[in-house]
Amino acid sequence: xxxxxxxxxxxxxxxxxxxxxxxxxxxxxxxxxxxxxxxxxxxxxxxxxxxxxxxxxxxxxxxxxxxxxxxxxxxxxxxxxxxxxxxxxxxxxxxxxxxxxxxx
Length: 104
Fold this sequence. Notes:
One of its GO terms (cellular component) is membrane. This protein is mainly alpha-helical and 104 residues long.
């Protein structure tokens, strides 16, 4: 599932970024049994859009997201929300392509 706009769209209002995760969290809650939420790890790995922003803005956006994720009911630690490097982003894309090929 993908939600638009991305986190970088909150550069002018970083404190609102966390609210944008609510739809994703509800999607997850609809698929993970409630009794497993507390042991189900949730991570946020932001990509290129956030990487392009000023470090201070990045941190404010991530902190807003961390606040929402901490209260989500899922297992979350602050260090699990971060901006991934371009290299890691490419590695994830390769994995996704391989998964898509296997699903054919």
